[in-house]
Amino acid sequence: MAFEYAPAPESRSVVDIAPSYGLFIDGEFRPAEDGKVFKTVSPSSEEVLSEVAQAGQSDVDAAVRAARKAFEKWSALPGSERAKYLFRIARIIQERSRELAVLESLDNGKPIRESRDADLPLVAAHFFYYAGWADKLGHAGFGADPKPLGVAGQVIPWNFPLLMLAWKIAPALACGNTVVLKPAETTPLSALFFADICRQAGLPKGVVNILTGDGSTGAALVAHPDVNKVAFTGSTEVGKAIARTVAGTGKKLTLELGGKAANIVFEDAPIDQAVEGIVNGIFFNQGHVCCAGSRLLVQESVQDELLEALKRRMSTLRVGDPLDKNTDIGAINSAEQLARIKSLADSGEAEGAQRWAPACELPSTGYWFAPTLFTGVSQAHRIAREEIFGPVLSVLTFRTPAEAVEKANNTPYGLSAGIWTEKGSRILWMADKLRAGVVWANTFNKFDPTSPFGGYKESGFGREGGRHGLEAYLNV
Ligand code: NAD
Ligand code: MG
């Protein structure tokens, strides 16, 4: 029998959300020129949190103009001066991390345990890390005096709103670029709070501009003729559309798209440790993770033992209030995403796989999906091929290492993979053969600003993080 938990909610009072927000252009908040707005809701309660501006073409023009104007002075500053601003931003993020963590959990639905212990520390670390590069660009391996590109247009998704902002903005500013960033329409608030942090840090006007809006705002931004660099994280479908828009314009482009990672467990792996890694791989952030370990490849000889342990562990996962400190799995980010997850899970059953989920009570309002696993999955099933982007694991089996490699690589994606085995030589052999940008060994979903991240094939191109991440923002 598991112990009952008393509720342990984090206080909402640490964050003060205004009833409405404007666009952040040239250091000021202002309404959209045509006055359009949209609402952002908390996916765990469907409560409206705030109303934000929907940027149109003339707002995009104004933001790019502000960024262009700011570029001249910002790019001419010595790197050591730019570093001071980035260090200041990093420290303010640390100081305000509790407020930002609660805000992120409210707007996105992710558990406070994750926003507090994973997202926010990584956001601050990313700014600290790239602050350190700003005065050392001549030693990064891109020539003695590498130059910035100009104005960067950046479009990010809703799964890690503030972390994806950090991945985009920190290296861009360190290298001397100015930015116009568009957060996702379901999670605009932390980017607007970041705009406030830029003001608090005394960042010169126009260096960072934040445009809230939907896909049409993103499309106008990436198509703007005075943008020099486009960085996008999101779906492969939109990534392809952006690649078509940017083709032939001379704009530099990086795309970080979806994934369908294999988490591969060999018979000699420590089973309990592997189970933790599988759970972290697919249920972290409700499975809204591009590098999620959504395909479990288990060696046939340990399948029964592993699945039994995995089901036992899944039965202890707590689904519910994102602000409760004991919650493991929060709310699905939007009604649309929930519908997508449901329809893919239904296709799994229709195509003949066996569905299993622990008994678990879901709240009556908000968007929820119980942690789910499918056995009897074949490589042709949609749940083995398509990115579900939810808490759904597809289990496949293999007999030999060669078969594991073949099945792991049998996907249009190539973002990440995991290997669980006691044998070091097998880890190296496998890692060499897996077509994935990141390969974790006996762990999963580990992130660090010093380590490059990015994909092969339909997972996109370009690297974010580490020294490699500078290249995307330098004229090299
Ligand atoms: P999306 O790609 O539509 O949205 C991502 C961002 O792109 C948002 O800010 C959106 O406003 C913007 N956008 C949409 N259309 C655009 C366009 N034509 N030009 C420029 N920007 C545009 O993703 P989604 O619809 O929220 O999710 C759909 C699926 O994408 C998910 O189910 C998941 O499989 C995948 N996804 C992947 C990631 C990732 O991190 N790789 C993130 C989010 C979603
Ligand atoms: Mg929201």
Automatic annotation (TrEMBL):
Keywords: Oxidoreductase. It comes from the Bacteria. The active site is at 256. PROSITE patterns: ALDEHYDE_DEHYDR_GLU (PS00687). Pfam families: Aldedh. InterPro entries: Ald_DH/histidinol_DH (IPR016161), Ald_DH_C (IPR016163), Ald_DH_CS_GLU (IPR029510), Ald_DH_N (IPR016162), Aldehyde_DH_dom (IPR015590). Residues 32-476 form the Aldehyde dehydrogenase domain. Gene3D superfamilies: Aldehyde Dehydrogenase, Chain A, domain 1 (3.40.605.10), Aldehyde Dehydrogenase, Chain A, domain 2 (3.40.309.10). Belongs to the aldehyde dehydrogenase family. This is Aldehyde dehydrogenase family protein.
